[in-house]
Amino acid sequence: MTQGTVGPPGRRLPGPEELRNNGVVKNVGEARETPTGTPQEELATGERSTRNRVARSILDHGPSTVTELAGRLGLTPAAVRRHLDALVADDVVEAREQRVYGTRTRGRPAKVFALTDCGRDAFDQSYDKLAADALRFIQERFGGDEAVVAFARARIAEQADAYRRAIEAAAPEERTEALAKALSADGYAATARSAPVGEQLCQHHCPVAHVAEKFPQLCEAETEIFSQLLGTHVQRLATIAHGDGVCTTFIPKISEITHNASASTAGRNPA
Q1: Can you give the pLDDT at residue 98?
Q2: Fewest CB atoms less than 10 Å from the CB: which of 39, 95, 206, 210?
Q3: Mean of the per-residue pLDDT values for the chain?
Q4: Any residues with CB less than 8 A from the CB of 19 and at least 6 apart, and which?
C-alpha cells in the first residue's frame, strides 16, 4: 500500500516523480523542451519532468487527445506523441477511441490517451488512510487489540499458502531463500543472507509500512507465520514501520537449535 510504488504483483511501478527514466534522450530537436547543448543528464531529467507533466495533465483533465495535451502543456504535437509512446511502453497510459456523445460526425473517432490502473497508482492514493481507518474501526467496535490481532493473523494466513508451497518445494538449507523469493513476488523485495549461527531474512520494502506503524500487530502476525513456515523460532530485529531501513528477521540454524537442546539435556534422565 505504499503510495506511488505498488502495482501488479511482482512488479514495481515508477513513482510520480519519475514515471520513466530511459537514461538517454532520444530526440533533442524540440527546442521548447530540451535546449541544444544541455548536458545529457540534465536533458534526461527534463524528459522525465515533461513526461510527468503529460501524465499529470491526463490525470487532471481525463482522457485527452494529442492536440489537447499539446495546447495545455505548450508542446508540439510531435513532442507529446514521443512522450506518450514512452508512457504507453511503461503501461502508464493507454490509447483508446474517444467516446462520442450525441450524433457522431463523419470520419474516424479521435484517439485519446487515458491513464491505466497502473498509471493511476503511480500518483498519490489514500489507501493507507483507508486501511488504517478500517483497522481503527475494528479495534474500537469489535474487541480492541484482540480483534486487530485476529485480523492480522487471518490476513497473513491467506498470503501464507503460496509461501508454504515455495518452502516445502525447497531443500532444507534453501528454505529461507525460497521464502524470500515468495515474499518478493508479493512486493516485499526480500533477500536472504548468511549470518552467524543462522540466516537473516531482509525485506527491503513493506507495502503496508504506513499502516503497520500505527498497528504493529501486522508485523507481529507476520513474524509468527515466518516461525510456523520455517519450523523454528525466529526473531524480528528491525522493521521499516519503526523507522528502520529494512525489515530484518533472524532465523537460527535448525542444527544449532538441535545441538543446544541436546547439550542442555546431556547427562539427564529423560524420565
Answers
A1: 72
A2: 39
A3: 79
A4: 48, 51, 52, 55, 87, 90, 92, 119, 122
pLDDT digits (tens, 9 = 90+) for 19-32: 333 333 333 334 34
**pTM for this prediction:** 0.59
Question: Which CATH number does the domain 1-125 belong to among 1.10.10.10, 2.102.10.10, 3.90.1150.10, 2.60.120.260?
Answer: 1.10.10.10
